[in-house]
């Protein structure tokens, strides 16, 4: 009989404090349950994460953040460093350019049981599917918000259909 290995979760928070902090806490909770945890981040965000997790054995893997992105100032790797919210959408879009490096990291971290990534990193679903790894989505706004957005979208579609 083969030995049972502990589960290994990859956690990939979006580069914003309000998204990172809850996922680091989740990582700590998982680690207490003997789950191996790897946090994916960028070099610019790594010092804060390393400081926050210094009393744990959680692994941290750094990916390069895309450079020369139109609408994103150089060396900005977190939303709190954006000069204005006009830079937010280009910032979010630029994270897609991290997909190749993310997939390389997954290959080097095998076996991976689950990926937990932020709602703003939707492209990680494709990466998880590519490797046959389940992906869970973290959304800082929670189910209540998403329920109401979905409800509003349904009402809008109903109104639109009744006038056509």
Automatic annotation (TrEMBL):
Gene3D superfamilies: Glycogen Phosphorylase B
SUPFAM superfamilies named in the record: UDP-Glycosyltransferase/glycogen phosphorylase (SSF53756)
Highest taxon, organism lineage: Eukaryota
Recorded family membership: Belongs to the UDP-glycosyltransferase family.
Protein name in the entry: UDP-glycosyltransferase 90A1
Species the sequence originates in: Abeliophyllum distichum
